[in-house]
Amino acid sequence: MTREQFINGLRGGLVGLAPATVAEIVSDYEGHFNEGLAAGRSETEVAEALGDPARHAREIRAEAGLKRWETDRNASSAAGAVFAVLGLGALDLIIVIPFLTSIGGVLFAFFMAAVACLGVGAMAMVAGPFWIVGAPWPAMVLTGLGLMSLGVFFGAATTLCTIGIVNALVWYGRLHLRVFRPALDSNGGTV
Amino acid sequence: MTEAVQVQLRKGVLELLVLALLSRGDAYGYEIASRLAKGIGMGEGTIYPLMRRMQADGLVETYLVESPAGPSRKYYRLTASGLASFRAQQAEWSQFSHAVNEILGGAS
């Protein structure tokens, strides 16, 4: 592999990160090539010793994804963190995937249930008295309110669960990045 | 399997080793990488993602120094919290390795 191929591979893997960040990372590796050449090694030798550029790019991205989740808790950063951890492609993470998809499915189902409760509750409250002839409207309104608060409760519980699971996954991903530290340092992976 | 264990072991102590190297004096990336490549057979490129992470965690900070080899070199230096982390991890490590050795010694 030549210097150019290495740097291109690295850039390719870093697409999507801020340009300033990419420039900084690339300059680290360019500097490494400069030092290596000055020390009398060939480009190929240095590239070989550096290893697979795509792999380094993956690790950098994974860390960036985990950091974003820690500072900015929202759905997109959660998805980013999950994909970053999976992107590390460690074998035991692949084993975890079926497990994760079933958890994801259950969470999704709960979210849908929450949305349905909200919807049905709202309908019962607003339209119920007109639909069911003779139904006492205070009862319908109360039923509607009850269903809606059940929906809110479901939604909140599911959100909390999702946050907890993403946090666990982030902790697990961190374990792959640095085995020694988080196992000993209690504030290692969590916030 | 053995290979996977070796990789994990190396990865696990890498941060501790970098902290140890920097506790003896500031260094630039190439220096750290070649020292660790020679010492424990680490891929040289692994060091840069690690240095970024340690910088983001506030364990190290960087400064530029003019270099005779061309563009300026990026030097790394331990922060106060980096030094504290080194002391703590060093103590954990010696305790851990002592315990492992004791058991290994009894098994041979």
Summarize this structure briefly.
The complex is a heterodimer of chains A (191) and B (108). Chain A is an all-alpha fold and 191 residues long. Helix content of chain A is 83%, strand content 0%.
Please describe what this structure looks like.
The complex is a heterodimer of chains A (191) and B (108). Chain A has 191 residues and is mainly α. Chain A has 2 domains: 1-51, no CATH class; 62-184. Chain A is built from 9 helices and no strands. Chain A has helices at residues 3-14, 19-38, 43-50, 53-71, 75-87, 91-126, 128-131, 137-177, 180-184. The longest helix of chain A has 41 residues, at 137-177. Chain A is rod-shaped and about 95 Å long. Chain A starts with a helix and ends in a 7-residue tail after the last helix. Chain B is an alpha+beta fold and 108 residues long. Chain B has a single domain, classed as Arc Repressor Mutant, subunit A (Orthogonal Bundle), CATH 1.10.10.10. In chain B, 67% of the residues lie in helices and 18% in strands. Chain B is built from 4 helices and 3 strands, in the order αβααββα. Chain B has helices at 2-23, 29-40, 47-56, 80-107, and strands at residues 27-28, 60-67, 70-78. A 3-stranded antiparallel beta sheet of chain B has the order 1-3-2. In chain B, β2 and β3 form a beta hairpin. In chain B, α1 packs across α4 (80-107). The relative contact order of chain B is 0.14. The chains are: A mainly alpha (191), B alpha+beta (108). The A-B interface holds A 25, 28-29, 31-32, 34-36, 38, 46, 49-53, 56, 59-60, 63, 67, 91, 177-181, 184-185 and B 4, 8-9, 11-16, 28-30, 33, 37, 43-46, 48-49, 51-53, 56, 69-71, 73-74, 88-89, 92-93.
Structure keywords:
heterodimer, A: 191 residues, mainly alpha, 9 helices, disordered C terminus, B: 108 residues, alpha+beta, Arc Repressor Mutant, subunit A, three-stranded antiparallel sheet, 4 helices, 67% helix, 18% strand
Mean model confidence by pLDDT of chain A? 79
Number of domains of chain A: 2
**Strand element count of chain B:** 3
CA-to-CA gap between the ends of chain A? Answer: 41 Å
- Name the chain pair whose interface involves the most residues: A-B, 28 and 33 residues
Identify low-pLDDT runs of chain B.
Answer: none
Mean pLDDT of chain B: 86
At the fourth CATH level, what is the homologous superfamily of chain B? Winged helix-like DNA-binding domain superfamily/Winged helix DNA-binding domain
Q: Could you state the order of secondary-structure elements of chain A as H and E?
A: HHHHHHHHH
User: What's the number of extended β-strand segments of chain A?
Assistant: 0
What is Rg of chain B?
A: 16 Å
Helix content of chain B: 55-70%
* Main sheet: strand order of chain B: 1-3-2
- Derived structural class of chain A: mainly alpha
Largest sheet of chain B at a glance?
3 strands, antiparallel
The total count of helices of chain A amounts to 9
CATH topology of chain B: Arc Repressor Mutant, subunit A
What is the CATH level 1 assignment of chain B?
Mainly Alpha
Described by strand count, sense and barrel closure, the largest sheet of chain A is: none
What number of domains of chain B? 1
Backbone CA Rg of chain A: 25 Å
